[in-house]
Amino acid sequence: MPVKLKRLHAVLRQGRRPIVLAALVVLALIVLMIRGLNARLRPVLEAAASSRAAGLMTQAIDAAVDDCLQENGMSYSDFVTLERDAAGRVTSITSNTTANSRFKRLVTESIAQRLSALDRGELGVPLGTLTGEPLLLGAGPAIRTRVDSVGDVAADYANSFTSAGVNQTLHRVSLEITATIHLFLPGGVLPVSVSSSVCVAETVIVGETPDTYLNLEKGIG
Q1: CB contact at 8 A, 105 and 139
Q2: If we measure between CA atoms, which residue out of 128, 116, 129 comes closest to residue 183?
Q3: Per residue in 54-91, pLDDT tens?
Q4: How far is Cα 221 from Cα 202, in angstroms, rounded to an integer?
Q5: According to DSSP H, which parts of the chain are helical?
Q6: 3 state SS for 13-38
Q7: Radius of gyration over alpha carbons of the chain, in Å?
Q8: What confidence category does residue 11 fall into, taking pLDDT thresholds of 50, 70 and 90?
């Protein structure tokens, strides 16, 4: 290679170095800005997505219980049998175990189906919400969020006996339900769990309150 061409090549190489260094510095600054922005917005995104998902999950749980009650025509006597003496006084309460177990299974299956079908449009978090500015809440395009998987859906019966007047006791049968879903967010998966207590049956028992069913207060079925 002629001497002049060698010198020209060396000059060009030296000229590229500042450009390359400047490009690397700019790239590094962009990466740092993105990481800083992500670190600041990630907790806000998780909180907003978790709150929105928890609300939708609670609605799905309530709707599943209501639909199962209506579709199966369930009433108080389907969950509990009251035993009375010759004078008509309630002497004991017996759980209808088979019917209770079947209903609980139907409810948990229905809840799992509803949670897995949650609309990603409803789960999305508007970009304006992440700014924390009241005027921008709900504004802007939504950051896509979807249900990655549905975890355990557990349900257990709980009973409560409360006074409803003179010689009157309100007996309420509830389902204590806990459900978990995993939300797929940009950059990771967020687990969200909710617990809900839904009344499935109740009645007012007239007469004295015998110990034979007060001892069942912690739960039947």
Answers
A1: no
A2: 116
A3: 999 999 999 999 999 999 999 999 998 888 888 878 88
A4: 14
A5: 3-72, 76-79, 97-116, 120-123, 127-131, 211-214
A6: HHHHHHHHHHHHHHHHHHHHHHHHHH
A7: 31
A8: very low
